[in-house]
Amino acid sequence: MYNFSFQNPVKLIMGKGTIATLSNEIPKDKSIMITFGGGSVKKNGVYDQVIKALQGYNTVEFWGIEPNPSIETLRKAIALGKEKKVDFLLAVGGGSVIDGTKLISAGLLYDGDAWDMVLAGKPAAGTVPLATVLTLPATGSEMNNGAVISSYEKKEKHAFFANYPVFSILDPEVTFTLPDHQIACGLADTFVHVMEQYMTTPGQSRLMDRWAESILQTLIEIAPKIRENKTDYQLMADFMLSATMALNGFIAMGVSQDWGTHMIGHELTALHGLSHGHTLAIVYPATLRVLKEDKAGKILQYAERVWQISTGSNEERINKAIAKTEEFFRSLGLTTRLNEEQIGEATINEIEKRFTERNVAYGENGKVTAAVARQILESCL
Ligand code: NZQ
Ligand code: ZN
Q1: Does one domain contain both 232 and 368?
Q2: What is the position in ligand 1's atom list of the atom closest to the CA of 37?
Q3: pLDDT (tens digit, 9 = 90+) per residue, 129-146?
Q4: 255: CB partners within 8 A, 6+ apart
Q5: Residue at a domain's end among 142, 174, 206
Q6: How much distance in Å is there from the Cα of 357 to the middle of ligand 2?
Q7: Ligand 1, atom 5: nearest CA belongs to which residue?
Q8: Does ligand 1 lie within 6 Å of residue 192's CB atom?
Q9: Same domain, 278 and 153
């Protein structure tokens, strides 16, 4: 186990009817900007619940933060927030609304162009406090300090590390209206978040391993049941908490991490607009195929503990576990190959070029260079 320091300040408020408690958490004198996506919250009653809970507050609304939030839209939100002298932000939506709001919270205190901060990966001059009402289990953004911001003009997408929400409200009932594709992407994203922190080398921490495996097992158990009934409260509550726990730092204490699949996936979204979780379902099995020798020890542990594969040669067990992983993503209703999305060699060339120019190397050992990213992408054709 490596040395580490851990602090997660987010107050998690979970359960039926908890949106009504919003006013217990926000001081009355705050000038609040409430941020939203494209309107799903108007159809499922979340908007009405939030507005009712915030009666008497000074609020301004900002609508239209897109899936894969764009700097082009967020600049407008920052300008509005400055004009209205906003000093508290409430993001109501999925990871995109929350991530976008993290950039707004840094942008409100910065006089330059917010894209500078995205490229720098961090705020320039502090942040305004933000809180969230989560509507889509997937990213963990409700309990971490990460954000991923796109430029549609430049066809780029970059990670940005800012502030943790002060609190996040998670009412599983608000997920009942999620489209099947978003549920599939959320399950895949959660699964791969765990894998990015778990699938490295064995023997670093028994506790981290077992926490990670417990989330994977929970996802494998609930996914087919959610496909049958996506309005089952207990199932969606477990899904929601799994997604939060998968990327709030708890399973990463003292262990190495990978994140190569995410970095390749972000490029597929930037270039083709594929949903984030879907890109991971395509890239992750290929990452395992290409790096199976480096990751052999951990894949064998994963095979046995998560998929109960305990017979056959090491090579057979490893291949079976990789096949099981891809099957799991397909069972969610996602495609797992680039050619199924009409993506081919031109995109692979472009991603290899970008990674070469940026001189990056991802993965727990820095093995995922531009050349290895090419191999991974070729393995998902
Ligand atoms: O925009 P609205 O109308 O609200 O509709 C959204 C959107 O179209 C809809 N939706 C959300 N909640 C709903 C709902 N529809 C019906 N009922 C509900 N309850 O779902 C669509 C997708 O929403 P989005 O927020 O884009 O999805 P997600 O939560 O998967 O977020 C994806 C973004 O998060 C980033 C991704 O790269 C991507 O940009 N990530 C952020 C991370 C982080 N902050 O730590 C880590 C992740 O790895 C990821 O990279
Ligand atoms: Zn992700």
Answers
A1: yes
A2: 1
A3: 999 999 999 999 999 999
A4: 1, 2, 197, 198, 200, 204, 205, 208
A5: 174
A6: 24
A7: 40
A8: no
A9: no
Alpha-carbon torsion 169, 173, 178, 181, what sign?
Answer: positive
Task: For residue 36, give the CATH number of its domain.
Answer: 3.40.50.1970
Ligand 1 atom closest to Cα of residue 159: 50
Q: Are residues 247 and 349 in the same domain?
A: yes
pLDDT band at 71 (very low <50, low <70, confident <90, very high): very high
Total domains, the chain: 2
Q: Which ligand is nearest to the CA of 96?
A: 1
> Do 50 and 107 share a domain, yes or no?
yes
Ligand 2 centre to CA of 68 (Å) is: 12
Q: pLDDT at position 277, please?
A: 98
Check whether residue 123 and residue 212 sit in a common domain: no
- Residue 274 and residue 170 share a domain: no
Task: Say how far apart CA 19 and CA 16 lie, in whole Å.
Answer: 8
Please name the residue whose Cα sits nearest to atom 40 of ligand 1: 139
Q: Is 244 in the pocket of ligand 1 (CB under 6 A)?
A: no
C-beta of 279 in contact with ligand 1 (< 6 A): no
Atom of ligand 1 nearest to the CA of 141: 44
Based on the fold, state whether residues 26 and 150 are members of the same structural domain. Answer: yes
**Residues having C-beta closer than 5 Å to ion ligand 2:** 189
Q: What percent of the chain has pLDDT over 70?
A: 100
Assess if residue 3 is contained within a domain: no
Query: Which of 136, 170, 266 gets mutated to test ligand 1 (max ligand atoms within 8 A of its CB)?
Result: 136
Residue 148: CB within 6 Å of ligand 1?
yes
Of the candidates 274, 381, 273, 288, the one whose C-alpha atom is nearest the C-alpha of residue 336 is 381
Domain that holds residue 130: 11-174
Question: For the domain that residue 236 is a member of, what is the CATH number?
Answer: 1.20.1090.10
> Is 5 a domain residue?
no
Ligand 1 within 6 A of CB of 170 = no
